[in-house]
Design goal:
This protein is α/β, with parallel strands linked by helices and about 290 residues long. The chain contains eleven helices and eleven strands. This is GTP cyclohydrolase 1 type 2 homolog.
């Protein structure tokens, strides 16, 4: 479909009414489904490929709050990073929360499309957007390059425009990412200077060793566990910044929406904060 669109005489996609198949083609050109992990579930979840698409809502998670927003805005398509049906199912009855969501979307004529690990490794992909959001500039390189193409891969490593203290870097990162109840947790000397930064959108403790090998002064990711983080810090000076999973992947939504910038499709980034944690308490025994 995308190739067919490209030969339109005026070369202007804004003059073309796009179908769901056209939109899927645009996203799969950038985020090839073949790049997804074998355990992943990416692509079109529900929707009629021949249906016209006028409005697309982008969100990290396919949850009821996002569906509410999409239906209220009369969206024709929701594009999410996280899959709805990651594990195999044998049915989608409305007696389950995921089944109810599928039924609501089908009844309203709203399609759902997912780009997950194929968007993680793309160039540019999820971690590129995260790197820019926390202040990295210039060239970025994969933290864990793909064996098929060294330009692709998980995570990114890059340089700050100038050295900052860890405290300053973390403050800037907090401003660049959406606010969450958990904020940012930091392990390291707040006055230590950092210049080389590694990032990974989503759960990234599998790349701790790669961050050290890349010479990163600080590694920002999500879902860090106590023992891996503690052992990592004991073994070297690389600082750690642990952000909310949702927050590290949210910057990618703007990049994904930008793929439709040359079309006549209206896009919106979901206002829903779908981080799992809703508040924190600092009280405790002394």
């Amino acid at each position: 479909m995308v190739c067919a669109l490209a030969v339109i005489s005026d070369g202007n996609l804004r003059s073309v009414s796009l179908t769901l198949a056209d939109i899927v083609g645009i996203f799969e050109d950038r985020y090839d489904p073949a790049w997804a992990e074998s355990w992943d579930a990416v692509g079109l979840v529900c929707g009629d490929p021949d249906a016209p698409v006028r409005r697309v809502l982008f969100a990290v998670d396919p949850v009821a709050e996002v569906a509410d927003e999409a239906l209220a805005w009369d969206a024709d398509l929701i594009v999410t990073h996280h899959p709805l049906l990651l594990r195999p199912v044998h049915g989608v009855p409305a007696t389950t929360h995921k089944g109810r969501l599928v039924h609501r979307l089908i009844r309203s004529g709203t399609a759902l499309f997912t780009a997950h690990t194929n968007a993680d490794v793309a160039d540019p992909g999820v971690s590129d957007a995260l790197a820019r959001a926390v202040g990295l500039s210039g060239d970025l390189r994969p933290l864990s390059p793909s064996p098929d193409d060294p330009r692709r891969g998980l995570g990114r490593v890059g340089e700050l425009p100038g050295p900052l203290t860890l405290r300053e870097f973390t403050a800037g990162a907090a401003k660049g990412l959406p606010a969450t109840a958990g904020g940012l947790r930091v392990a390291g000397d707040p006055d230590a200077l950092v210049r080389t930064v590694a990032v990974c959108g989503g759960a990234g403790d599998s790349l701790l060793g790669a961050a050290r090998a890349a010479g990163a002064d600080v590694y920002l990711t999500a879902d860090l566990r106590h023992h891996p983080a503690s052992e990592f810090r004991e073994a070297g000076a690389t600082a750690l910044v642990d952000a909310a999973h949702w927050a590290t992947e949210w910057p990618w939504l703007r990049d994904a929406a930008g793929l439709l910038g040359e079309t006549n499709v209206e896009t919106r980034i979901s206002a829903a904060v779908t981080d799992a944690w809703t508040f924190r308490s600092h009280e405790g025994s002394t």
